Prior knowledge:
Structural class: alpha+beta
Strand order of the largest sheet: 3-2-1-4-5
Order of helices and strands: HEEEHEEHEHHHEEEEEEEE
Helix content: 25-40%
Oligomer: single chain
Largest sheet: 5 strands, antiparallel
Low-confidence stretches: 1-6, 163-179, 190-201
Radius of gyration: 31 Å
Amino acid sequence: MGKGKKKKAGKGVAIFGFGIFMLFGLGFLGVMVFYPCWMVLASRNWIETDAVVESSRVSEQRGSKGGTTYAVKITYNYQYDQQPYTGTRYDFDFGHSSGYETKRVIVERYPKGKQIKCYVDPDKPSSAVIVRSVGEFIWLRILMPGLFFCIGLGGIIFTLRRTRAKAMDVQAVAVKAVGRSGYYRLKACSGSLGRLGGGFFAVSIFGGATVALAIACCKVPETVLRLALLAGAVIAGVATLAILWSFVRALMNFTQNVYELDISQSVARPGKELTLEWRLPQAAQSGKVIILLSGIEKYTYQEGKHSETIESLFYSQLLMEKDHPGEGQGMLKFTVPVGTMHSVKLSNGNEYYWTLGLYAWSDGKNYIGSDFTLPVVPAQKEI
């Protein structure tokens, strides 16, 4: 296996690993935050019923490292529709947590034999609760899964950013030798990172979703409560779909040979001919394929207190136009014209760079493909 394939596989493994972190965080948020909050809303319509405490205690649970967590355990008997039932749920809190003293105070309020009120689900009378809340540690429950989520998504973004090609200055050699001896692989300057835009969007709304659901645990009017939970659920759903779609697209890009361009020299020089090899995936071999050489000027201008960045073409040439490329690969020769600007970043932030675009039309209307950064250095002066 060549170095290029090893690096590609390594990036795919990294994205997969960080994706597990991200989905792990989302899963725990669903179990520990979203579901309990949803139960708070659902229980607003439960029926208040008399009950008698049968037993109450603080349950202890020791961890593998010696730490101890606690939970309120109250058993109570009640009747609904003339049928006897036994309940064991105090609130909608999830599992055990730290803070013995808080649990002890709660248990002391519910001694054996005390007459209390509980809330019964009319559609499932065996389901009841004493306090319709998720406990006071809901914010701590958000932090840990949220941390896993952010680590996972941040890791994916970082991995993809490392592969993003940048416009090269005159001192840079942008590509490394891969594949066939003597050829150099160009890097895509668009694609995976852009497809992860949904991930950035999800990060920005992640906090909003959890806050909306946490607000739902407070004692607010039912209309406000329903709107808060609905907003949180919609935002969380959109975020999850955006992340999963971005993750799948990015992973596919690293695990398949999608679009590849190799050149015969590590850099291009105006007036010097280069050989270009191109390859397409099988799915893009049934339509028209083009390769486009472009020179782009990127400049920023100030307008009052605001600045705006504009990109414009200073050179464009169609190198190839081919219908139904049978084997999905080929070779051509091209030359960057003499007298054109090389790749450079100027001190004022303006930039000149070159790209090679490889595109395929599958249905005659929509195209798929990538732009590849082509490093162009100044022409050698004749002595």
